[in-house]
Amino acid sequence: MADLTDEVDPKALYAFKKDFLQLMRVAFWMDKEYAKNTIQLNAYLGKYKRLVQAFNRKYKGLSLRIGQTPETLATRLFLNHADLKGIFLIAGRIAGLKGIGANDFDAASAKDPAAVDKELKKVTGELYLSYSDSKGSGTIYLEYDKKEKKIEVHYDIRSILRDKTPEFKLVAFFALKGETDPSLDVYTEALSFGFTDLLTEQEFKDRVDEFNPRFGE
After folding, report:
1. Residue 201, pLDDT above cutoff 80
2. Which among 22, 117, 146, 170 would be 20 to 30 A from 206, CA to CA?
3. Final residue of a domain: which of 93, 109, 138?
4. Can you tell me the mean pLDDT for 173-182?
5. Does the residue 215 lie in any domain?
6. Which domain holds residue 34?
C-alpha cells in the first residue's frame, strides 16, 4: 500500500531523518536539564537556539519554537500550514488511518465516509487522528495556534523519533515538500552537543539505517 512518505525523495528523507532525530535528542536533553539551571545548561542555551534557527532555515515547511517557563523548556513543532481540514487530506494518505475526531480520538471511523465528512465539519481548532496497520498503531494530535497562525503537532518524543509512526511521516512530508536548503548542516551541529540520554549512539545509528536508501546494498 502506498504511504505518504513514498511521495518524497528517499535520499532527502534519509537526510531529514538524521537531522531531525539528532536535533530532537538535543531537545529532550535541554528540557530534561533546564529546571536544574546548571552552568553547563546556560552555556548550551544560546547554542541550542541557533541550532533551532538553522533547522527552520533548512526546512521551511516546518517551524520549531522554543517555549520557556521557569520550570520547563519545551521545543514546540509547527507545520507551516493554517487549515486543519486541508491537513486531513494529507494525513489521510498515511497508511492505516483508523479514526478521526474534532474533539477526541476515534469520534468517527475512517471506514465510514459519511461519518468522517460529518466529523470534519465540526473541526475548528483541533484535529485528532488515529492509525493502525500491520506495523503498529499511532496517533496524531494537531491544534491551530492563533498566535503563530500555524498548526502545532503535539508530539510524543519517543513516537516521533520512529520513522514508521504517523507523527514522523506527517512532519517529514511537510519538511520535504516545503522549500529546503541542503547546504545547512544541522546534523553535525546537533551532534556537537554530545547528548545521548534519549537514544544511545548505536540505537540512533540503527534507527537512521532503517531508512537509509543505500543500507543493505
Report:
1. no
2. 170
3. 138
4. 96
5. no
6. 4-80+147-209
The confidence score (pLDDT) of residue 207 equals 54
Cβ-proximal residues to 202 (8 Å cutoff; 6+ apart), any chain: none
Radius of gyration from C-alpha coordinates of the chain: 18
Cα angle 177-179-181, degrees, rounded to a multiple of 5: 125
Last residue within a domain, chosen from 101, 120, 138: 138
Compute the distance between CA of residue 76 and CA of residue 63 in angstroms, rounded to an integer. 8
Q: Is 60 helix (H, G, I), strand (E, B) or coil?
A: coil
DSSP 61-121: TEEEEEEE-SS-EEEEEEES---HHHHHHHHTTSTTEEEEESSSTTSEETT-HHHHHHHHT
User: What digits encode the pLDDT tens for the residues 57-91?
Assistant: 999 999 999 998 888 899 999 999 999 999 999 99
The stretch 25-51 carries a mean pLDDT of: 84
DSSP helix/strand/coil, 139: strand
Are 34 and 127 in the same domain? no
